[in-house]
Amino acid sequence: MPPRRRLALPLLTAVLLTASLAGCGGSDRPAAVATGDVPTMPETTASPIEEIPGQPTAAATALPVTFAPGRATPSNRGSGSPRPALTPPAALAGQEWTRLPTSRAVVALTFDGGGNDAGVASILATLAQQHVPATFFLTGRWAQVYPAEARRIAAAHAVGNHTQTHPHLTGLSDAAVAAEVTDAEQTLQAATGRTPRPLFRFPYGDSDQRVLDDLHRLGYGGIRWTIDTLGWQGRGAGQSADTVVARAVGAATAGEIVLMHVGSAQDGSTLDADALPRVIADLRAAGYSFATVAEFTG
Question: Which residues are catalytic?
Answer without folding.
Answer: 112, 261
